[in-house]
Write a structure and sequence with these properties.
Order of helices and strands: HHHH
Strand content: under 5%
Number of helices: 4
Shape: flat
Largest sheet: none
């Protein structure tokens, strides 16, 4: 999946998530990817890993672990001199942290 597609998804999903239910934010982000990248079927690769039934503490722990995982993947790519991939992971982590 191209960085442009990931960027399109994240730039739509995370702002929408602030004001809409997660499923609506996902649908909006998938639609944005289909609209801006009609040649790609990558929009279907995005899915939710839910918080349903989690306490606030569990939600925060889950979110922190995803953030930590994403940063670690960026660091791993950087250590392998794959700066484009590292940048993609770091950008995702920054988007998550907002």
């Amino acid at each position: 999946m191209s960085p442009e597609i990931r960027t399109t998804f994240c730039e739509t999903f995370y702002p929408a998530l602030r004001t809409e239910p997660a499923i609506a934010a996902l649908a909006a982000a998938q639609a944005a990817v289909r609209e801006r990248h009609p040649q790609s079927t990558a929009w279907a690769a995005f899915e939710l890993a839910g918080f349903a039934g989690m306490t606030t503490a569990e939600k925060n722990q889950f979110a922190a672990s995803r953030l930590d995982f994403t940063v670690a993947k960026g660091t791993q790519a950087r250590q392998q001199d794959d700066y484009a991939e590292a940048s993609r992971y770091y950008q995702s982590a920054l988007t998550m942290a907002q």
